[in-house]
Structures
1.
Amino acid sequence: MMTQNGQHFLEWELDWLAKVVTTRLENHFKIKQEQKEVDAIPPPDIEQVRCSYAQFARSNNLNFEERVILILSLVPFIKPNFLDDLISGVLKNPGEFPQIGGVRGKAFRGILPTVETALFILAGDDLNRRFHVQSYFNQDHLFFTKQIIHLEDGFDSEPSMSNRIVLDDEYVELFTVGEVSKPKLSTSFPAQLITTEMEWGDLVLNSATLDQINEIEIWIKYNNTLMNEWGMKKKIKPGYRCLFHGPPGTGKTLTACLLGKYTGRDVFRVDLSTVVSKFIGETEKNLSVLFDKAESKDWILFFDEADALFGKRTNIRDAHDKYANQEVSYLLQRVESHSGLVILASNYKSNIDEAFTRRFQSLVHFPMPKSDERLTLWKQSLPANINLAGDINLEEIARQYELSGANIINIVQYVSLQALSKGHDHIDNLLLQEGIKKEYIKEGKVI
């Protein structure tokens, strides 16, 4: 939560901005004979302040101009009438002042700052200084590379300086309440946070698969050191791409969750029903929102049933095929340039376009568990406080029935609920066989 110290600091920062804006207005409209440079007004000291806003400014070494732009972008969220009050207080007569910039919203009736607003405050009519301040709105500035602010486009025919400065919602939360909530699945964010209470010991896989998963974990832990401290940034492409392939229920989603859990990273499963659109260009737009949001985060993006997005391109027979292939090409470009971990999951490796698999660092096979692995899964899955009847031979059941981990969990859930409904404290072989048969029928198999 935002501390009292943090609230006071934002008030000090707003007071400082008010002095800067007032000075610029007085200079520009020649209200006072003696003019004062705006950058001669010192910002509040941040060295000993522990609130999120001050810590952010300190850790990123923000200079005078960057401090002005940052607090200006926060103004609409904490003091909507800020600019209106300052302008009317200095200029007295109401009216339109286009040189100050800013726009009005549909519901928000205060002044929403634009790039022109920042240029006016920091540079006035000084062209050289205006060009200097414009550099803070280049896409390679930390405000944009870290997704702190973005510029909301106006009309195409209007100067880009009329674009509104928009502070990212996460930074609004961080600076005002001191913490950021996790993004939720919505039409504007097509992914959902997934977690697990299970441990690495609960994951039953063969040694070859586990070795490959360990390689991914090593990348997560040491990639920053390799790229930055060892100077490999110029030689190695950013990010890590891997394909988890194998039958359903063999641990692909659980593995992704465990990688996030043990490396301190959030795992977001991409909701393909929200991403994929029949309208031309909408799928790319939805994916762009997702990748842009994830770019400055240490998230793991998990594309389950990835065939729907990353499937093989087709021969072009009509316009639909053409745009479908364009979607795959766009995906290829975004996945290859993404600096984080992207995991694709599919039942069949052959379903994924070879253009993607060629660029994967890792292709991890999740096969159906063998009999000894199935025995371990049975033992781990059964409730610890329930007895097995003497006629149950788990070794024989593990050998006889080819089941995935998910199948076994489904069977255990069924037989446990049946035992509870009958008031039993044990599971007998007849009930267990009934559960196995039920799962086989569901899978379209014959016992």
2.
Amino acid sequence: MPTDDATTWKRCNTCKRPIAFGASYFTCSVSTCNRKGTDFVFCSVACWDAHVPVLRHRDAWADEQSVPTAEAWEREQRAEAAASPGPRAAAAQAQAAPGGRPAREVLVVVSKLKLYIRQVSGMNTSDDVVEPLSDHLRRVCDEAIAHARADGRKTVMARDLERS
């Protein structure tokens, strides 16, 4: 998640206030809220409490955590990037490199995707659908960008997507 300045670690998932390095924050005790893709963090118990009814937790509590220092966080990020092979490491390096490609982030609203699939088919949607779908959208967008460039434009239009 992008931050505004060097003092901000992450933003609260509920109120979007910055959480500074070295501060306290709260996480949800429910495992699905702490996965790599979701990784919810909250600046206060009140913000954590606001997310409970949205995600329909039955038995959950807020765990208080401490944000690492900026130096420790940088070390963790470098160690994680070096230890993890494949696309995740490439994404971490791209995010760290100025002028490189943007970090690999989810490009779809997961809740709306899951709702659409349920309404159309009555089926559930696995969490592992999101990354491949985002990768597909990146490929489509990259092709549309190439079409717009070939036409001498700086604006991607619907017709560029249709040609992809």
3.
Amino acid sequence: MEKKSVCAVVVTYHPDDGVLDNLGAIRPQVQGLVVVDNGSSEEKRNRLRLAAGEVEFTLIENGNNLGIAAALNIGVKWAQSERYRWVALFDQDSLAPPALIDTMLRAYESSPRRDRIGLLVPRYIDSRRGIPISAIYAKDGSLQVAMTSGSLMPISVFSHEGCFEDSFFIGGVDYEYCLRLRSIGYSIEECTDAVLMHAPADFTECKVNGARLFSTSNYSAGRRYYRERNTVWMIKKYWRRYPAFFAGMLSHSVKDGVKILLAETGKRRKVYYMALGVRDGLLGRMGKTVEL
């Protein structure tokens, strides 16, 4: 297999102690590991500096929060400079099971669409709730979009098609890149034999008389802002090509707003920031514009 040509890229931001276990789980599966820290506290960075020698990874310290897209791009460019063939991208709270990378490489080699694969992802399980995270499929059976964490990508894709959209800062970075790749003929594939435990949000279950009505994600006002702003940006660019997908995203945004009003704290601030995000998306005001 191509194990020795894979570099894992992990972005950290004020990580808890569990990140060391996650890095330790990833490291034996790849040849290289680069951790890009996005402005964590000095205490957190000191822990990462010590771990860099113990776990054997390269630590790049940004000094401040440049956003997830910029941090991923820094890690990918480092891997390019070291001449790796593949990059595997992970969030700091994703725990990779043994043989995840080898399983995904085998899936790539056996895929009839491997010459067109731009991104390969595992199945995801919500580590907090223990349930599968729903995937979004295209009509041909491939994925319409996929999360960044756990994704395996030929590094040549970045060389030919460019890096992540760093003006997004955070929110929708993965979706935009998937839509961009699909627009030029790449396929986004799911490796059903590989499973990654992932913690996408701190969900609250809303119940009446013990019956579950819905769950809500409790994202901060800042996160809500970037999600809405970047969604509007993507709609402006990709609407004609993917109308059904964006109709679903708009419906999801409306439902999120209702859930916030019904069940979350800080609802006025969150809904206000969602509206600001829509406005700035329409105006094309991108980059880091609000604090998280």
